[in-house]
Fold:
Amino acid sequence: MNFRYPVFLNLAGKKCLVIGEHPELTAKIQALRDAGARVEWRPSVFQQGDLSDCFLVITSLPDNAEIFRLCEERKILCNAVDDPDHCRFSFGAVHRDGDLAIAISTNGVAPGLAVRLREQIQRSFGPEYGQFLALLREVRAEIAARIPEFTARRELWYRIIDSEALQLVRSDRLEAARALIQGLISNTSRSDTSAEDADR
Structure:
């Protein structure tokens, strides 16, 4: 097994085919739909034509070798449930809260360990992180527009993340957190402008 390259996919509008009736497939179908994929499910009967225009396939057949071979020929990502020899990728255990997603993989060795680690993460990273990310989403475009210089922008992001804003969100003081973030943006923007004026 060599599932060592982590990646988060944009599946919006992509055709994803699910084949079989494994107990885990219902959750996987829902996850694909939540990601915006166009999901087609074939519980038992599969035809090669079903692969047309597919981006990703999840299969749980008694023998997945042929569907995996067909996917490889067509450059389609394939996952065969509980059949790592016929997988191009694996699913990790994922903790989600809003825009926050923390995925854990054991390279297919011990999925149960990944689940237990996810449970620990859920206890450590509460809903305040999703709320904090929602605030950061609000200001992302503004920061890019007001602070074009990359180094200054990167330093600002770390100042925001290391500030008391997250603690304010945790204390249900969203407006105070928003004001703090806006203050940091304004201070950086003024400093950036002053530096440009000094260079003239």
User: Anything to note?
Assistant: The longest strand covers residues 54-60. The chain has three domains: 1-91, 92-125, 127-192.
